[in-house]
Amino acid sequence: GWANRSDGAGGTSGATPAHGHTGGQGSMTPEALKRRASTHFERETEPPGERVLFNLSAVLKAGEVIVVEGEKDAGLLTGWGLTATTASCGAGKWRQEYAASLRGRGVTILPDADRLGREHALKVAASLLGVADGVKIVELPGAKDVAEWAEKGGTKEVLMQMAGESAALTR
């Protein structure tokens, strides 16, 4: 089967391992698999049924965390030296229990520039108010998501400036 395989071999025809979700102790948890046609699958590893934030081990060590809509954007920001995370399977999949992993952290949410992205950002923000140590939503100008914004010249420095200038949300 697929358990702990990283070489692309396994029982799901056409699927290849993509972005792993690692639990707080470093164990593998649900992992998004991408089919060549961009269809996402969930695979269960240990413990069955548990859902955790992408990049959880880094999130638990960070004081500031950026929440985005997908693993691609989280990975890009992580490559910039930032701590970024996302819910398993992206927009609309945020669970209230994810808020506990962000307790006491400053959180900046970067929504995708569509209705679903904005609704997702508001849901994430609502779950974090009173839990996180400050919550901001920062929309990236002229791009549908973080990856496109970066392709158009967006940088870590500009992102940090925009986040710094944004007001924290209140209840």
Provide a descriptive summary of the structure in words:
The structure is a single chain. By secondary structure, the chain is of the alpha/beta class. It is built from five helices and seven strands. The strands form two sheets. It has a four-stranded parallel sheet with strand order 5-4-6-7. A three-stranded antiparallel sheet has the order 1-2-3, with no helix packed on it. The longest helix is centred in the C-terminal third of the chain and has 14 residues, at 115-128. The radius of gyration is 16 Å and the shape is globular. Mean pLDDT is 78; it is low at 1-46.
Alpha plus pi helix count = 5
3D shape:
globular
Order of strands, main sheet, comes to 5-4-6-7
Question: How much is the average pLDDT?
Answer: 78
Beta-strand content? 15-25%
* Extended strand count: 7
Radius of gyration: 16 Å
Chain-wise SSE layout:
Elements: E1 15-19, E2 31-35, E3 40-43, H1 56-61, E4 64-67, H2 71-79, E5 84-85, E6 106-109, H3 115-128, E7 135-137, H4 146-151, H5 156-165
Parallel strand pairs: 4-5, 4-6, 6-7
Antiparallel strand pairs: 1-2, 2-3
Summarize the structure.
The chain is an alpha/beta fold.
Identify the notable features of this structure and list them briefly.
single chain; 171 residues; alpha/beta; disordered N terminus
